[in-house]
Amino acid sequence: MASSASSVITLNINGEKYTLPVDHRTTLLDALRERLALTGSKKGCDQGQCGACTVLLDGRRAVSCLQLAVAAEGREITTIEGVAEGEQLHPVQQAFLDLDGFQCGYCTPGQICSAIGVIQEHAAGWPSAVTDDLRPDAGPPPLTAEEIRERMSGNLCRCSAYVSIVEAVAQAAEAQPDARRAGLGPEPKEAVA
């Protein structure tokens, strides 16, 4: 029995539904950029190592170059084009502008989507590799520069705007102490073991 190599899928992107036929091997990044003209997410390394293609899937960070489009069906996809509320920039976008958290801007969409995820994860109390106190009742660790650098380490910036990026994430987090209540997205889903 021959199997089909393509499917018609419906993707929920930035609150809108898009139905399109895709080859099963099509990445979410290629579907966004080449099929739907949502070019904010950038193709950097195409190997999941630079973070330029980071989007939010169900409120969690994901590198879209490693995510198959067919596997994203039925999930809430948020790209850089969907983080602002109309003309009002998202707090993370505003912080990047205020503190020059970008230079050439190529990595900025992925940095911003990742920063939104970082703030949500921190507000939910998720530890990082540098978190000292891992006790569940300890609550979120202080969002220090070291914590931000570790949490953002999957996003590379060839211009080396890292100092400004860390400051921008800290400013956005301070302005929105409770990420879920502040509209930074849904609470990240718990990992299934």
Report what the structure shows.
The protein has 193 residues and is an alpha+beta fold. 27% of the residues lie in helices and 14% in strands. The chain has five helices and five strands, in the order E-E-H-E-E-E-H-H-H-H. A five-stranded mixed sheet has the order 2-1-5-3-4, sandwiched between helices. It is globular. The model is unreliable at 179-193 (pLDDT under 50).
Q: What features would you highlight for this structure?
A:
alpha+beta; five-stranded mixed β-sheet; 5 strands; 27% helix
Concise account of the structure shown:
With 193 residues, the chain is α+β, with helices and mostly antiparallel strands. It has 5 helices and 5 strands; from the N terminus they run ββαβββαααα.
What strand order characterises the main sheet?
Answer: 2-1-5-3-4
Helix share bin: 25-40%
SS content category = alpha+beta
Shape designation: globular
The end-to-end span amounts to 35 Å
Q: Per DSSP, what share of the residues sits in E-state strands of 2 or more residues? A: 5-15%
Rg over C-alpha atoms, rounded to the nearest angstrom: 17 Å
Number of distinct beta strands? 5
This entry's quaternary arrangement is single chain
Please give the largest β-sheet: 5 strands, mixed
Query: Mean pLDDT across all residues, rounded?
Result: 90
H/E topology pattern: EEHEEEHHHH
Count of DSSP H/I helices? 5
